[in-house]
Structures are given as C-alpha cells and as structure tokens.
C-alpha cells in the first residue's frame, strides 16, 4: 500500500536509509489512512538513536529538538516549511507493577517486533515502511481496523498493567473513531481500574476532556454521540471515583455511582456548553448539591484542572442555570438576575434552552438593552469621583456599596439613571 506522504518526508527517509537506518511511520497516521483519512500528526520511528539522528540529519534541513532523552524521542522541525515530525527510537520498556504511566527503565533495540510489543492496541501498532511502501502488521491491526474494534496488542493484563492510562486511552480512541472495544479487553480493564490511582492529574484531564469532545476529533469519522459512548464506557468501568477522587472522598460518595445513562444534558450539548452540562449532569447523578464547592472539585485542580478564572465562569453559568430552572417570583427579580449575570447571560440561556424554554428571558434582556438599562457600574451617570465631590463625609470603602445600590435601583427603574435622581438616592441611602 502506498501512502500519500510529503516530498520532505520521503527525502528524510532517503537520508535515514543512506545511513543504514530504516524509517517508519507508526500509529495513528497509518491507522487513519486505512480508515480513509489522514487527520493526525505523523509519528516516526526507527533503529537510529537520537545521537545518531543528530549526526546524520543535515542541520541545514532540520532543527532537532530533544523531547525526552530517556525515551529516545525528538522533534525534527523542517527548515523548508512548517512540517514537524516526532521521531522515537525502537525501545522496550519496564513498568512498575501498579500501572504507573512512566516506565522504570527503557532499552533501545533494533528489533521492530519488540517495539511493537510495547504499544497499546493493534490498530495503533501498524508501521509503514516508507522506503518499501508497505505496512508491517504484527498483531492483526489491519483486520481489527476493518472490523472497527480495539484489541490490545498482547494480553489485556499485560497492556494495562504496563500503563494504567491505557484504559482511559482505550475509551477515548473508541469514542473518537466509533470503534467497539473488545469485550475481554474491557472486562480486564474494569477488573484493573484501580491502576488509575497512580496516574497524574494532568494526564487524567487530557483524556477525560478529549473524550467529552470525541465527536469533534475527526470530522471525516461518523462518530455521532462519540462523547456519549465515552461517558457510558467510563461509567461501566467505574472510573469516576479515580477521575474525581477528591470529590468522592470529600462527600463520601459510593464508588458505584453514577449508574445508568445520567448524561441527559450532555447528550444535547454543543461543544460550547459541553463541560458546563457535564458538571450539572454528573453532580445530579451522584446526588450532590450543586454549589461552588462541588463545582470546583469537579473542574478545579483536583478535578479536570481548569484554571480559577474558567472555574469561576463555569460556576456562574451553572448556578445561573439553576436559578432560571427554579423560576422567578416577579419581573423585577428577573431583571435583577439579568443585570447581575450580564456577562454570562448568553451562555446561561444557551444551557437552559437544552431543557426548558427561556424565550421570555431572552426577550426581556433585549428590551433592557433597548431601554438602556444600566447593567454595569460604568453605565451609571455618576461614579466614585462624583461621590467624592458631593459627599466628602462618605468613607471611600462605601463607594462600591453605594454604586451597587444605585445599579440595583436603576435596573428596576432605569428612568432614574440621571445625575440629579442618583444624587438624591445617594443622599437618602446615606441617611
């Protein structure tokens, strides 16, 4: 099988071959080419060590950047165009017994079969010999790709004990590619799920968030609802107590939860609201009150690793969604809600529309904009400088309190947003 590769890559292969080393494309690019598309980076491998690559690859053609000396991984950055290839020397690996992601030791080897044995799934253990234009397949990967199934290269026990992160990778890949998972591999992963306890939070986050957006990964793949399949797999594996360990221990949640198809909002959510909807669905599934603390444990440093700013934004949207679902006592309460959440109101409305009608809220927001209702402090006709001039007796620490009071008053009665009326309100408020 001849693959469509760049002139640069063919010339790079010629350089390797002239120096006595074969060059192979390995993994996702080969797999995806067999599926009919090439929407992934090109990973290279071969017998040459990083030191040898640095000696024979011309510096005039490539910048060589060492990525991981222990693993024999480097980047070849083309100086002719923007192509970047990741190259790794054939190797064998020894892992701790608890499924930790990083190997204890690494040994460079010349045997391609030994390199294939350290990989995870047959569909990813395919090598394309660039010089001879042929695929090398040691684990029936081509057959499994045609059947659209994920199978481990060696026994599932061997693959998952070598690296526990492969269980999450299995879920993500199946979700992105629309593959089924080999039943034995899935059963073994479930029995070994405790190996996730050794995985770093950063690697957890990458796999879980990628699974949440699995249906967007490869546009050419018909992976409709891939993220839903992924959430179902993670639930069946009982992976959530390891993904959100701090949440489960803090609230003493049963490790068997959540169960069933609990992801009702996520199932309908577009990419822009997916994480928001996931948090709502998940906290409802485990029976927790949705508040700032529980949201932070799901999204913050002990959860999916979002920064504080993004966690706060998500919390405002989620809590706003709950307020809307709870209803408002009167129109004034609704106006104040829009004013208080003006930065997040479009997102709140977007999430709400997945389950309830909020046309009245959207219409009211538009009317408030037309009526020029002050929605932020900068919209008021007076500011702190005016307060300083007109009310010198007022402590500066009270400026924010007074201005926020004016903002609330003008939300209900926007006609009062003029300097004369506002000063009268301030006078009464101070008294």
Task: Write a structural description.
This protein is an alpha+beta fold. Helices cover 48% and strands 11% of the residues. It is built from 22 helices and eleven strands. Strands 3-4-5-2-1-8-9 form a seven-stranded mixed beta sheet. Strand 8 and strand 9 form a beta hairpin. It starts with 6 loop residues before the first helix and ends with a helix.
Please describe the topology of this protein.
Blueprint: H1 7-18, E1 23-26, H2 28-35, E2 43-46, H3 50-56, E3 62-68, E4 73-78, E5 84-89, E6 91-94, E7 105-108, H4 112-117, E8 126-129, E9 134-137, H5 141-147, E10 149-150, H6 156-162, H7 165-177, E11 180-181, H8 183-191, H9 201-212, H10 226-236, H11 240-243, H12 245-250, H13 264-268, H14 274-285, H15 292-299, H16 308-326, H17 331-340, H18 345-352, H19 359-370, H20 384-390, H21 399-412, H22 419-430
Helix pairs in contact: 7-9, 7-10, 14-16, 15-16, 16-18
Quick recap of the structure?
The chain is 48% helix and 11% strand.
| Average pLDDT for all residues | 93
Query: Number of DSSP helices?
Result: 22
Q: Order of strands side by side in the largest beta sheet?
A: 3-4-5-2-1-8-9
Strand content: 5-15%
């Amino acid at each position: 099988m001849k693959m469509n590769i760049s002139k640069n890559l063919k010339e790079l292969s010629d350089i390797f071959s002239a120096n006595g080393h074969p060059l192979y494309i390995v993994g996702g690019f080969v797999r995806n080419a067999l599926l009919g598309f090439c929407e992934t980076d090109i990973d290279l491998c071969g017998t040459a060590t990083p030191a040898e690559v640095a000696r024979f690859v011309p510096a005039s053609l490539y910048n060589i950047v060492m990525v991981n000396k222990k693993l024999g991984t480097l980047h070849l950055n083309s100086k002719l165009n923007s192509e970047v290839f990741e190259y790794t020397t054939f190797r064998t690996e020894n892992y701790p017994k608890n499924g930790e992601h990083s190997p204890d030791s690494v040994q460079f080897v010349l045997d391609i079969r030994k390199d294939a044995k350290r990989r995870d799934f047959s569909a990813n253990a395919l090598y394309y010999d660039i010089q001879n234009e042929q695929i090398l397949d040691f684990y029936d990967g081509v057959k499994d790709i045609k059947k659209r199934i994920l199978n481990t290269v060696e026994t599932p026990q061997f693959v998952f004990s070598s690296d526990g992160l492969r269980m999450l990778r299995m879920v993500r890949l199946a979700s992105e590619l629309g593959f089924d998972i080999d039943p034995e591999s899935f059963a073994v992963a479930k029995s070994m799920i405790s190996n996730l306890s050794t995985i770093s939070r950063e690697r957890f986050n990458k796999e879980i968030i990628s699974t949440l957006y699995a249906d967007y990964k490869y546009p050419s793949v018909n992976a409709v609802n891939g993220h839903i399949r992924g959430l179902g797999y993670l639930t069946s594996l009982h992976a959530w107590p390891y993904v959100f360990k701090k949440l489960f221990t803090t609230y003493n949640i049963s490790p068997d939860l959540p169960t069933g198809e609990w992801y009702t909002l996520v199932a309908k959510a577009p990419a822009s609201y997916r994480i928001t909807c996931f948090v709502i669905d998940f906290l409802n599934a485990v029976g927790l009150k949705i508040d700032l603390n529980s949201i932070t444990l799901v999204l913050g440093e002990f959860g999916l690793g979002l920064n504080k700013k993004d966690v706060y934004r998500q919390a405002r949207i989620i809590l706003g969604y709950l307020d809307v679902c709870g209803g408002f006592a009167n129109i004034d309460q609704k106006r104040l809600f829009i004013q208080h959440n003006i930065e997040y109101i479009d997102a709140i409305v977007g999430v709400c529309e997945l389950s309830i009608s909020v046309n009245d809220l959207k219409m009211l927001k538009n009317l408030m904009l037309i009526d020029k209702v002050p929605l932020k402090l900068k919209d008021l006709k007076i500011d702190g400088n005016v307060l300083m001039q007109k009310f010198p007796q007022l402590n500066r620490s009270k400026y924010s309190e007074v201005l926020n009071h004016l903002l609330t008053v003008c939300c209900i009665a926007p006609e009062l947003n003029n300097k004369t009326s506002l000063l009268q309100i301030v006078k009464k408020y101070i008294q």
